[in-house]
Amino acid sequence: GTGVKHDPARVEALQQLPSPVSGADLQQYMCAINWMRISIPGYNMLVQPLTEMLERVFAAGGGKRTKQAAAAVLLEDIGWSVVHDDCLAKTNAVLGNVMELCHPDPQQRLCVFADSSEGHCGSVITQYTAQKLERWALLLMGYSYVIHDIPGEVNVWADLLSRWGSTLPSICAISQQPLLISPLRDEKFVWPTFVSIAEAQVVAPDDVLSRMTKSLDAVHLVVLASGQAWLLRLVDDVIWVPVAAAELQLRLCVCVHASLAGHRTAKATLASLESFCQWTGMKGDVEFFVRRCLHCASASGGSPRPLGEALHSTAPNGLIHWDFVFMGASKTGGDKYLLVVKCDASNMVWFFPAPEATATFVKYCLLQWFAVFAVCYEWVSEQGTHFKNQVIAELQHVLGAHHFTTARCLWANGTVEVVMQQLLRLFRACLSEWRMAPDQWPEAHLVSMLVLNQLPSPSLGGMAPVTAMSDRPAMSPAETMALPGQLISATLAEVEEGQRENIAALEEMHKQMLVENARKRDRLRQYHDKKKGVQMAQKLRTKWCGPAVVTEVTSNWVYNVENLLAYYVRPVHASRLIFYEDCDLDVMSELLAHVAHNSEGFEVEAMVDARYVPTTNVYELLIKWRGLQDADNSWKPANNIFADLPVMFKAFCKAATSAVIKKIAVAYEVM
């Protein structure tokens, strides 16, 4: 014959079988037609009712799938109905129309046609035997015609026949929003105001507004864009933000977390926001926002140093700790160190940039502290030569102070070591957000000092150091969003009474602060492994360099990671990776700029040009970085390039012809 088909006698015998009565009859019938399933289109859908009934038979027979166990089960006892009779009749009818499988012709081309939809996929293997195309070509030769290629989505009339009566798939519109790494640096960023909050409250449903309290404060009376006067709605005595105002909520989170807020933790950010406003699900939103902050992820990390026993004070300015931290050479080539002075009781800190760690500079800074906060008679530092020498000894003797040093345990000065970790993390986050190089740290040290002194301290019971030291209220990030309050008039007697109340409240606050500080210290004191692998010149670099793309999993612990800018791939251990986003992350220019700024370093591709800077009296080279555009070329001091890349530096000087480069060759003795 021309193909393969089932025996007609066998098919006829199956069609004449009586309707099954027991489970064994149904099992025998299903096993018989299962041999023909490859020739029956849509076999599974066709016999689904009979298959489900057979599963009931096996369940009623105790789970056994033998013919003997199925024979004891009557179909009418387990739900045989008209539906199954109809399915049996349809199956018998289809058996008479089974497909015939043809033998392939080796002289003809074998064609495979495949297609898929949202629910199914299928393919057909066939051979073209008719000469229709040739006949069409001969027929069309008698006409003058032009062939036009119409795309499928435009060819609606021809496509209409295949889609007639089918349900339209639901389509979800997708809009891409730019990823703002540093929103406050964007000129388009709109600061939240009372008016924007009122505009969001106006469009809220009436049943929701009816449950909110109308503010009685005149400051909360705003005029909308339509000219309508509106009193802000409150919930739990703070401003209510509708849950639907997602963009407004995001801007509020940015204001209380970034920039001068100091990239606080999720708990501190939530506390600052709760003092100003509230919305449903705010805790989860704030935690997600802080977790997604690239600057916090880049700056966090590291292990705490082991802390030993330390002296503590019971009153502000009763005991001060100080230490130097190496920050790296500044851009101007002057300051390298930062002297950190901290009050033990109030946690107030003061930063002093210095070119060198000398005793004379320490003396000057201590006198400046004493001029502002009065003389402190108890000092704690390590045993460095810049702390323990004749200059400091004379200052100690003149003032009558006691100087305690930590012998053979440089990190035991734990009170100030905690500040070192905080300031380094803050410097990393702020430099990353403001797109400043690590050598520009002196320009940000005053802002960092402001932030640390305004941050609520857990050891002080949530009080800020500036409040514990001077009884002045701490700056809240929410204050940048609120309108100024009304002026209040007062008499001299009222001012004097208020001052006395403030002094009494300050003394009581110091007592509570000491109790909370001692409780916190006793609960959290523990020993940790010493921090290892810290390179002094890299302290201000971000801890996390990314994002990057995981391209391959080589083992359970090693991944191949691709740089988004230079496109080089390197293996990374799983412990060094932090998950940020899946493959749906849209890599835009803002994200690439963040990666470029916080990168772990780039290779020098070429030296483009050279110049002489009269103000600094140094030579600089224009460097082209591998994987970056020409617009990212930057000037670097010739001293640094000569020290890092001497071979490339000498080759550049020998091959160049400009007068400046020849002078560089003479200055560096490149022959």
From TrEMBL:
Pfam families: Chromo, Integrase_H2C2, rve. It comes from the Eukaryota. Residues 602-652 form the Chromo domain. One of its GO terms (molecular function) is nucleic acid binding. Residues 312-473 form the Integrase catalytic domain. GO terms for biological process: DNA integration. This is Chromo domain-containing protein.
